[in-house]
Design brief:
Blueprint (H helix, E strand, L loop, with lengths): L1 H8 L14 H14 L33 H7 L1 H8 L6 H7 L6 H7 L23 H5 L3 H5 L29 H8 L2
Helix pairs in contact: 3-4
Protein backbone atom coordinates (compact mmCIF):
# COMPACT_ATOMS: atom_id res chain seq x y z
CA UNK A 1 0.00 0.00 0.00
CA UNK A 2 2.79 2.46 0.90
CA UNK A 3 4.55 1.69 -2.39
CA UNK A 4 1.36 2.55 -4.32
CA UNK A 5 1.10 5.85 -2.43
CA UNK A 6 4.72 6.70 -3.26
CA UNK A 7 4.23 5.86 -6.93
CA UNK A 8 0.94 7.75 -7.23
CA UNK A 9 1.94 10.83 -5.27
CA UNK A 10 5.60 11.28 -6.05
CA UNK A 11 7.13 13.17 -8.94
CA UNK A 12 7.81 10.98 -11.95
CA UNK A 13 11.38 12.18 -12.44
CA UNK A 14 13.55 15.00 -11.17
CA UNK A 15 14.27 17.88 -13.56
CA UNK A 16 17.16 17.66 -16.02
CA UNK A 17 20.06 18.13 -13.59
CA UNK A 18 21.22 14.76 -12.29
CA UNK A 19 22.04 15.01 -8.61
CA UNK A 20 21.98 12.36 -5.91
CA UNK A 21 18.88 12.35 -3.70
CA UNK A 22 19.13 13.85 -0.26
CA UNK A 23 20.48 11.18 2.15
CA UNK A 24 17.80 9.96 4.56
CA UNK A 25 19.52 11.39 7.64
CA UNK A 26 19.80 14.84 6.03
CA UNK A 27 16.21 14.61 4.82
CA UNK A 28 14.91 13.78 8.29
CA UNK A 29 17.15 16.46 9.86
CA UNK A 30 15.74 19.03 7.39
CA UNK A 31 12.19 18.09 8.37
CA UNK A 32 13.05 18.60 12.06
CA UNK A 33 14.87 21.87 11.30
CA UNK A 34 11.84 23.20 9.43
CA UNK A 35 9.61 22.50 12.43
CA UNK A 36 12.08 24.07 14.87
CA UNK A 37 12.16 27.33 12.85
CA UNK A 38 8.56 28.17 13.68
CA UNK A 39 7.87 28.93 17.36
CA UNK A 40 4.11 28.45 16.94
CA UNK A 41 3.43 25.65 14.42
CA UNK A 42 -0.20 26.81 14.05
CA UNK A 43 0.77 30.49 13.42
CA UNK A 44 -2.23 31.53 15.58
CA UNK A 45 -4.61 29.41 13.49
CA UNK A 46 -6.43 26.21 14.34
CA UNK A 47 -4.31 23.22 15.39
CA UNK A 48 -2.62 21.35 12.56
CA UNK A 49 -3.47 17.68 12.16
CA UNK A 50 -1.86 15.11 9.83
CA UNK A 51 -4.74 15.12 7.33
CA UNK A 52 -4.22 18.84 6.57
CA UNK A 53 -1.71 20.20 4.11
CA UNK A 54 1.64 20.55 5.86
CA UNK A 55 2.67 24.10 6.63
CA UNK A 56 6.15 24.98 5.43
CA UNK A 57 8.25 26.99 7.89
CA UNK A 58 7.00 30.38 6.71
CA UNK A 59 6.98 33.33 9.09
CA UNK A 60 4.97 36.55 9.09
CA UNK A 61 1.53 35.02 8.52
CA UNK A 62 -1.25 35.14 11.11
CA UNK A 63 -3.49 32.21 10.23
CA UNK A 64 -6.20 33.45 12.58
CA UNK A 65 -6.95 36.31 10.16
CA UNK A 66 -5.30 35.41 6.83
CA UNK A 67 -7.26 33.63 4.10
CA UNK A 68 -6.25 31.92 0.87
CA UNK A 69 -6.58 33.91 -2.35
CA UNK A 70 -5.06 31.78 -5.12
CA UNK A 71 -2.06 32.17 -7.38
CA UNK A 72 -3.83 34.47 -9.84
CA UNK A 73 -4.16 37.14 -7.15
CA UNK A 74 -0.49 36.74 -6.17
CA UNK A 75 0.55 36.92 -9.82
CA UNK A 76 -1.13 40.29 -10.31
CA UNK A 77 1.63 41.91 -8.20
CA UNK A 78 4.37 39.32 -8.71
CA UNK A 79 4.38 38.61 -12.47
CA UNK A 80 7.93 37.20 -12.68
CA UNK A 81 7.33 34.79 -9.82
CA UNK A 82 3.98 33.86 -11.37
CA UNK A 83 5.67 33.10 -14.70
CA UNK A 84 8.17 30.78 -12.97
CA UNK A 85 5.36 29.06 -11.07
CA UNK A 86 3.10 28.73 -14.15
CA UNK A 87 5.71 26.70 -15.98
CA UNK A 88 6.47 24.45 -12.99
CA UNK A 89 5.01 21.11 -11.96
CA UNK A 90 3.56 22.81 -8.90
CA UNK A 91 1.12 24.67 -11.16
CA UNK A 92 -0.17 21.28 -12.38
CA UNK A 93 0.24 19.22 -9.22
CA UNK A 94 -3.31 17.91 -9.08
CA UNK A 95 -3.19 16.86 -12.73
CA UNK A 96 -0.72 14.13 -11.73
CA UNK A 97 -3.29 12.79 -9.28
CA UNK A 98 -6.12 12.98 -11.80
CA UNK A 99 -4.04 11.09 -14.38
CA UNK A 100 -3.54 8.33 -11.80
CA UNK A 101 -7.18 8.30 -10.59
CA UNK A 102 -6.13 9.79 -7.25
CA UNK A 103 -7.62 13.27 -7.79
CA UNK A 104 -9.89 12.95 -4.75
CA UNK A 105 -7.58 11.03 -2.42
CA UNK A 106 -7.16 13.16 0.73
CA UNK A 107 -3.78 11.57 1.50
CA UNK A 108 -2.51 12.97 -1.82
CA UNK A 109 -4.56 16.20 -1.97
CA UNK A 110 -2.85 17.51 1.15
CA UNK A 111 0.36 18.02 -0.87
CA UNK A 112 -1.08 18.49 -4.37
CA UNK A 113 -3.46 21.40 -3.64
CA UNK A 114 -3.22 24.71 -1.78
CA UNK A 115 -4.26 24.79 1.87
CA UNK A 116 -5.99 21.41 1.93
CA UNK A 117 -7.99 21.11 5.15
CA UNK A 118 -7.10 24.58 6.41
CA UNK A 119 -9.83 27.22 6.81
CA UNK A 120 -10.48 28.69 3.37
CA UNK A 121 -8.05 26.26 1.73
CA UNK A 122 -8.79 23.69 -0.95
CA UNK A 123 -11.80 21.58 -0.06
CA UNK A 124 -12.99 23.77 2.80
CA UNK A 125 -15.07 26.36 1.05
CA UNK A 126 -12.18 28.25 -0.53
CA UNK A 127 -12.07 29.30 -4.18
CA UNK A 128 -11.78 25.70 -5.42
CA UNK A 129 -10.41 26.42 -8.89
CA UNK A 130 -7.85 28.91 -7.60
CA UNK A 131 -6.49 26.42 -5.04
CA UNK A 132 -6.67 23.31 -7.25
CA UNK A 133 -2.88 22.97 -7.56
CA UNK A 134 0.16 24.02 -5.51
CA UNK A 135 0.12 27.79 -5.62
CA UNK A 136 2.17 30.50 -3.94
CA UNK A 137 0.28 30.13 -0.68
CA UNK A 138 1.21 26.44 -0.40
CA UNK A 139 4.70 27.55 0.55
CA UNK A 140 4.27 31.15 1.73
CA UNK A 141 0.96 30.79 3.63
CA UNK A 142 -2.47 32.37 3.08
CA UNK A 143 -2.00 35.79 1.52
CA UNK A 144 -4.98 38.02 2.29
CA UNK A 145 -3.14 39.99 4.99
CA UNK A 146 -0.22 40.53 2.60
CA UNK A 147 -2.61 41.86 -0.02
CA UNK A 148 -4.07 44.27 2.55
CA UNK A 149 -0.59 45.40 3.69
CA UNK A 150 2.04 44.56 1.03
CA UNK A 151 4.85 46.29 2.97
CA UNK A 152 4.53 43.93 5.96
CA UNK A 153 6.76 40.85 6.17
CA UNK A 154 4.95 37.90 4.66
CA UNK A 155 5.67 34.26 4.04
CA UNK A 156 9.38 34.43 4.83
CA UNK A 157 10.96 31.04 4.09
CA UNK A 158 14.46 29.74 4.73
CA UNK A 159 16.66 29.27 1.70
CA UNK A 160 17.10 25.59 0.97
CA UNK A 161 15.20 22.38 1.33
CA UNK A 162 13.74 23.07 4.80
CA UNK A 163 10.97 24.97 3.02
CA UNK A 164 10.07 21.93 0.91
CA UNK A 165 10.27 18.90 3.19
CA UNK A 166 6.74 19.26 4.56
CA UNK A 167 5.51 17.62 1.36
CA UNK A 168 8.76 16.28 -0.03
CA UNK A 169 9.24 13.94 2.93
CA UNK A 170 11.57 10.99 2.72
CA UNK A 171 8.55 8.66 2.70
CA UNK A 172 6.70 10.17 -0.27
CA UNK A 173 9.53 11.84 -2.16
CA UNK A 174 12.68 9.77 -1.51
CA UNK A 175 14.33 11.06 -4.69
CA UNK A 176 13.98 14.69 -3.59
CA UNK A 177 17.07 16.78 -4.29
CA UNK A 178 16.60 20.46 -3.55
CA UNK A 179 19.25 21.84 -5.92
CA UNK A 180 17.74 20.19 -9.00
CA UNK A 181 14.10 20.65 -8.01
CA UNK A 182 14.63 24.33 -7.17
CA UNK A 183 15.75 24.96 -10.75
CA UNK A 184 12.20 24.39 -12.00
CA UNK A 185 10.49 26.73 -9.50
CA UNK A 186 13.22 29.24 -8.75
CA UNK A 187 11.93 32.77 -8.04
Amino acid sequence: MILLFVIACSRSAPPTAIVEPLPIDEHIAAEASALERVPDPSRNGPPIHPAMAPLPPFLGVDRSTATYLGARVCGSCHPEENAAWSSSRHAHARDVLNENNRGNDPSCLRCHTTGFGHPGGFGSGGAHEELDHLGCESCHGPGSNHLANPAATYGDLPRGFAACVGCHTHENSPEFQWESYWLSIQH
